[in-house]
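Is this the right way to post structure tokens for a design question? Let me know if I should format differently. Anyway, here goes:
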């Protein structure tokens, strides 16, 4: 009967290689369903093979789980078979993970660890122990038990150290850093974890590091997430450069492999011809050997994961060679995210660092590239037009969440780029896309709701709808539980409230302005008093900006100048956000003018105008030009005054045209209306369970990086601050 089993195994391999997964499973199930008994070991191996096929190629998780549970029962009666027992434990743990059965998963992993602790402590046993500790750590993460997760990962790190596997040590060191970044209760622990990662990475032989591409990406991305968390954009830059270079090199290598494979296929086709002349056959055979050697050298230059026992992720067709970024050797399930998701992340990092610097051309190219990568991946997951989250297969929800969250990050940055350069219609389109994705996947994208509301506020403020902007900022603050996000939304809302009343009729101006001023004080006052308890330089810069405007309205110019100067220092030294710097400079130039320091005012305003031009930021250009015109008027410099005013009117005409296009769009009212997003919440247990599994991968903690919107300088808008207006007129915003 063993010969029959081997024949069916071989036939199953044949069908799998042809992509006929159903036929392969039927061949294997014929063994399990046979009326003639096979040896238990044969049945166990067969069920393991079926489970692997189902998990790798289908969404049949429960079917796979049934086969594994049967295998486990059979293995209880067999005293040996350590390897088969470990494979069964590992795959069964992953099945429980997929269906959201975390307590049974933890129980099976504890049994697996008991098995490894009672076995001889050789390399193979230690590797399996690493596998089980890694999965146990992930189970604890789902339950929010960060400390137990770190303990499990530290146990894995000890095992990796005992067998002298530095790349496996690096896997656990980076995983520990990842958990610390998610927990974020002690920055010193994060710093110690970063130092450990750096130390272990340096201990790996340089030649070996070149083969650990997955670890390189994982480590560098975690370093970037930390730098972004503390808004240290300058020190994040070299990590992004390293990733970008590695990504481009790998893409070039994969392209060469594809070209060589195509040439080799064509050459093999030619060699199969029986009538090929011997001389030509000899030449082609020589070429064949060279191609095979080159392909082998390229494939051996990185860990490919071709011998992995476990599926890298579930519910998808088998990944082609080179589509994995392996983190650890077999039998670890060592992939963090699919290569396409990681490469989209790299594009996103380039965008996040490049956008504040005004590198819009590069940013838009990366946004387009990243979004195309994500759209392709979503199609493979079955997410086409009209598909909603309740239509998803359970095993596709986790990975769908990864790609959808990345997509929302790209769209968020696209909105920010377009608003900065006054592309209001383009910003509308991106924001409507975000809204539509959220409506279709409200549970998966629940964390994005406050972001969308905040962006609606950004858009409304940019087009001069200040009351609507304040409404959406306040709503965004209500939705989020993040203190930092709440602080920023309150700061933004305060700025919008300062601007309300500008476009009202003359009889309404005084009442509207007074009410809005009190609203702004109610928002910014309490938050500013608590600023020392809020982490993040981005939040601090936003609060200084809004509070500085408040002090200006209260005619406390000197204190306003001090607060704004501090905010400018943060924006310049830590954030590198040129738009925010330009806005700070403009308002400081205005203050200098109010304090009769015309020399400093002129230098500051010229710098602001230069930055605004670089960013194609029309509102800030108009703002700076308005103040410069007032300055030249005060100095009696009629020539420069007229020249500035003429350029200001030209820019104002351009802005009015863009605003008219935005107002006439069918999306304008939809976006600014004082109505929260209405979605049908799908409280499906499957979705909630699957979303819990995203904590290790989707919670990337990439901070939103939207800058403060410039108060809009339109002729009908009110004057935010009246600085010595009797002599110079009022600054328009």
């Amino acid at each position: 009967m063993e010969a029959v089993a081997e024949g069916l195994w071989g036939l199953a391999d044949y069908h799998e290689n042809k992509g006929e997964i159903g036929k392969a499973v039927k061949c294997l199930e014929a063994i399990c369903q046979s009326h003639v008994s096979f040896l238990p070991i044969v049945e166990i191996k067969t069920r393991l093979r079926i489970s692997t096929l189902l998990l790798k190629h289908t969404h049949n998780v429960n079917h796979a789980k049934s086969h594994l549970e049967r295998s486990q029962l059979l293995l209880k009666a067999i005293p040996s078979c350590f390897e088969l027992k470990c494979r069964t434990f590992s795959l069964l743990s992953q099945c429980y993970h997929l269906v959201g059965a975390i307590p049974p998963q933890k129980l099976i992993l504890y049994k697996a660890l008991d098995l490894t602790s009672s076995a001889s402590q050789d390399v193979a046993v230690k590797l399996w122990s690493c596998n089980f500790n890694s999965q146990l750590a992930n189970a604890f993460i789902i339950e929010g038990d960060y400390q137990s997760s770190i303990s499990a990962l530290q146990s894995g790190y000890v095992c990796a150290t005992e067998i002298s596997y530095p790349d496996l040590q690096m896997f656990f060191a980076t995983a520990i850093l990842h958990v610390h970044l998610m927990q974020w209760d002690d920055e010193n622990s994060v710093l110690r974890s970063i130092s450990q990662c750096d130390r272990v990475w340096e201990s790996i032989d340089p030649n070996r590091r070149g083969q650990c591409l997955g670890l390189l990406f994982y480590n560098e991305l975690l370093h970037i997430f930390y730098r972004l968390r503390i808004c240290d954009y300058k020190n994040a830059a070299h990590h992004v450069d390293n990733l970008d270079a590695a990504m481009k090199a790998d893409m070039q290598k994969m392209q060469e492999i594809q070209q060589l494979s195509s040439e080799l296929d064509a050459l093999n086709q030619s060699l199969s011809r029986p009538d090929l002349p011997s001389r030509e056959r000899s030449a082609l055979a020589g070429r064949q050997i060279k191609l095979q050697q080159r392909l082998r050298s390229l494939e051996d230059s990185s860990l490919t994961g071709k011998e992995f026992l476990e599926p890298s992720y579930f519910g998808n067709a088998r990944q082609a060679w080179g589509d994995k970024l392996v983190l650890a050797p077999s039998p670890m399930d060592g992939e963090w995210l699919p290569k396409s998701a990681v490469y989209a992340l790299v594009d996103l990092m380039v965008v996040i660092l490049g956008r504040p610097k005004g590198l819009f051309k590069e940013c838009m190219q990366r946004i387009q590239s990243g979004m195309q990568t994500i759209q392709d991946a979503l199609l493979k997951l079955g997410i086409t037009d009209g598909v909603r989250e309740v239509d998803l297969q359970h095993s596709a929800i986790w990975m769908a969440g990864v790609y959808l969250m990345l997509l929302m990050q790209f769209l968020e940055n696209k909105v920010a780029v377009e608003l900065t350069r006054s592309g209001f219609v383009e910003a509308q389109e991106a924001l409507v896309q975000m809204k539509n994705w959220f409506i279709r996947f409200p549970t998966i994208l629940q964390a994005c709701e406050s972001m969308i509301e905040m962006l609606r506020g950004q858009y409304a403020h940019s087009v001069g709808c200040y009351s609507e902007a304040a409404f959406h900022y306040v709503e965004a603050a209500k939705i989020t539980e993040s203190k930092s996000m709440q602080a920023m939304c309150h700061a933004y809302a305060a700025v919008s409230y300062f601007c309300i009343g500008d476009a009202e009729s003359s009889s309404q101006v005084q009442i509207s302005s007074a009410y809005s001023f009190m609203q702004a004080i109610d928002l910014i006052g309490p938050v500013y008093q608590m600023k020392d308890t809020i982490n993040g330089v981005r939040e601090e810069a936003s609060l200084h900006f809004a509070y500085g405007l408040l002090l200006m309205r209260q005619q406390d110019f000197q204190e306003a100048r001090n607060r704004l100067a501090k905010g400018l220092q943060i924006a310049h030294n830590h954030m590198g956000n040129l738009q925010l710097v330009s806005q700070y400079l403009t308002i400081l130039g205005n203050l200098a003018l109010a304090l009769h320091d015309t020399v400093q005012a002129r230098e500051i305003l010229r710098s602001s105008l230069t930055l605004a031009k670089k960013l194609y930021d029309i509102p800030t250009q108009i703002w700076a030009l308005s103040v410069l015109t007032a300055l030249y008027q005060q100095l009696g410099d009629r020539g420069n005054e007229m020249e500035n005013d003429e350029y200001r009117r030209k820019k104002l005409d351009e802005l009015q045209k863009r605003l008219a296009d935005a107002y006439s769009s069918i999306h304008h009212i939809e976006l600014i209306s004082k109505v929260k997003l209405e979605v049908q919440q799908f409280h499906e247990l499957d979705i909630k369970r699957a979303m819990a599994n995203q904590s290790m991968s989707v919670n990337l903690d990439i901070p939103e990086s939207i800058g403060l919107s410039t108060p809009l300088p339109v002729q009908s808008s009110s004057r935010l601050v009246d600085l010595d207006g009797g002599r110079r007129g009022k600054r328009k915003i």
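Format looks fine. Someone answered above. Worth noting: The longest helix spans residues 233-271. Confidence is low (pLDDT under 50) at residues 304-322, 689-733.
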